[in-house]
Amino acid sequence: MKLGTALAIFGALLFALLVLHAWWSTRRAGARRGVVAQDAERIEPALEGAATEPRNDGDAGPDTVPDGALAPLRALGRQPARLDALIDALVPLALDAPISGDLVIAHLPPTRRAGSKAFYIEGLDSETGAWEAPRPGGRYGELQAGVQLASRSGALNEIEYSEFVQKLQVFAEAVGASPDAPDMLDVVARARELDALSGPLDVQLTITLRTQGVAWSVGFVQQVASRHGFVPGAVPGRFVLAAAEEGAPPVLVLAVNAQAALADDAQGSAVRECTLTLDVPQTPEGAEPYPAWHHAATRLAEDLDAGVIDDQGQSVTLHAYAAIGQELGSLYRRLEALDLAAGSAAARRLFS
Q1: Which pLDDT belongs to residue 268?
Q2: How far apart are CA 240 and CA 233, in angstroms?
Q3: Which residue segments constitute the domains of the chain, with CATH numbers given?
Q4: This prediction's pTM
Q5: CA angle 345, 351, 352 (to 5 degrees)
Q6: What pLDDT is recorded for position 266?
Q7: Contact status, residue 93 vs residue 178, Cβ threshold 8 Å
Q8: Residues of the chain whose pLDDT is less than 50?
Q9: At 53, is the secondary structure helix, strand, or coil?
Q10: How many CA atoms lie within 13 A of 218 on its CB side?
Q11: Are the CB atoms for 283 and 342 separated by under 8 Å?
Q12: Residue 18 burial (CB < 10 Å; 0-12/13-18/19+)?
């Protein structure tokens, strides 16, 4: 090959790489709209003593926000029932001809998790044109799979993605599909970016109710909690205020020491404090979970003869409640800017 020809080919390849890099940089910058300066510890709103539970599963987001529109991460023309291009790495599974839902179900992986990340397989119904979880009697002209890019356990890593691809290849061979998995490095980079963007918005507001007199029995706490709409949860020592939406996560969680809740004797079950938690991304803003949290804290404190304190042992004042409410308003807007509105299916999956 002549030197001139070789140089021309090299120049063309270099130009293509520069174009690709520019496209990727623009996409990453657009997706960062709405992110503000954050502490590296990902702490929740805390003004004048509002107790919170910090999330420590990775680095915080970037310090500044480039101008520009949010990148169109929901790139699919047809929106699937569960899979979401914003929070999942999607893998198309091409089929030569439609297949039955029974065949798909028969060959689904026994456990649809890759490490700590959930993954899903969906089919495009040949009659309705809707994406859905495979069902008996269904017929599907296309399949797709997706693994969640991030959760509260952190970003999807290389080992988890490899496990997902391996399970998917076994499934694809069994049903006669051809998977087109994206490059591992690209997927892991997306996962880390999503984790960095969402981490500072992962807010769980928690305050402590501490007795100002004698210790309580767990039964007494349950009795008081039930007067305010709380019911026993699945975990011992937890009482939940259920959401109006069926199947939705609880709006509030009141918790006492689990060991005390499991104790057989009354003395062993005595407690002097309990915590009240609002998991902000899990409940829609329109359901007014923050006023419910504030109201429940006030009423429970009155009935339990308890003080409301933060993690520093300081009383939570009315001014602190008002300040936190204002910060939450800003937080809701930032979640919406990332297409992760509190209480949405994507937010509930991501912040879990």
Answers
A1: 66
A2: 6
A3: 88-198 (3.30.1400.10), 202-350 (3.30.1400.10)
A4: 0.73
A5: 95
A6: 57
A7: yes
A8: 1-81
A9: coil
A10: 20
A11: yes
A12: exposed
